[in-house]
Amino acid sequence: MPGVEAYGFPVEKLRVVTYNVRALRGDRAAVSRVLRSLDADIVCLQEAPRLFRWRSRCAALARESGLLYVAGGGTAEGVAMLAAMRVDIDAVVEQQLSRSPRLRRRGFVAARIRKAGAPCTVASVHLGLGAAEHPRHIAEIRGVLNRFGEEVEVLAGDFNETPGGATWRRLASEFVDAGEGDGSPTFPATKPRKRIDGVFVGGPASVTAYRVVDDDDVKVASDHRPVVVDVELGRT
Q1: What is the pTM of this model?
Q2: What's the CATH class of domain 4-234?
């Protein structure tokens, strides 16, 4: 994939973090410390608070992490998005995904954002445990991203599928899998065996850095490890 410089535009770095925080049932203070240390522009959360007082709890997590609450939680079945103050949010969609019989309903949050004039669309995603519903849900998410109309699209989340799965392979054929070639597992946090959390980038953008975070706070904060990706965007 060509870097943004090849298109003749100045570039802006966007740092995206995806993190399943297990409904804050672990060490909540550790979650906040992890997020503060990563200095993200956009944080895509899965299993954020979605029940009692979910909105105030999401906002409190954002505040404790030095971020702003953008959207999600109870409106998107536990999927949420946080952002740094240096990022402009132009439009947001919070949406439930179509229901599958006998399976928990899922949702997603998508936003059209700008950082220093560099635009893109970011979606925070949490696919379900039933692989059969994944293609349908990806199509619903892609439909919303297409309506935003930005060239650069970022899908970040817990895909409940490894890179060998059909949906992961399909996404990797349409987007750049930011962690391709790395292979570091993301779940469970203490002795990880599977890479099920990831970031996919599409359009005229360049992935410049990728890492799965592993430190003492990560091991007590949640049952997933956060993924950090740096992307270069063209400024308009």
Answers
A1: 0.94
A2: alpha beta
> Cα separations (Å) of 70 from 66, 83, 89, 106?
13, 7, 8, 18
Q: Where are the domains of the chain?
A: 4-234
Which of 94, 42, 35, 85 has the alpha carbon at shortest distance from 61? 35
pLDDT by residue, tens only, the chain of 236 residues = 333 344 456 789 999 999 999 999 999 999 999 999 999 999 999 999 999 999 999 999 999 999 999 999 999 999 999 999 999 999 999 999 999 999 999 999 999 999 999 999 999 999 999 999 999 999 999 999 999 999 999 999 999 999 999 999 999 999 999 999 999 999 999 999 999 999 999 999 999 999 999 999 999 999 999 999 999 998 76
Do residues 17 and 227 make contact, with C-beta atoms less than 8 angstroms apart?
A: yes
> Helix, strand, coil: what percent of the chain each, to 5?
30, 35, 40
22: exposed, middle or buried (Cβ count in 10 Å: 0-12, 13-18, 19+): middle
Residue 52 exposure: Cα atoms within 13 Å on the Cβ side: 1
Which residues lie below 8 Å from residue 145, measured CB to CB, with a gap of 6+?
A: 110, 121, 123, 153, 155
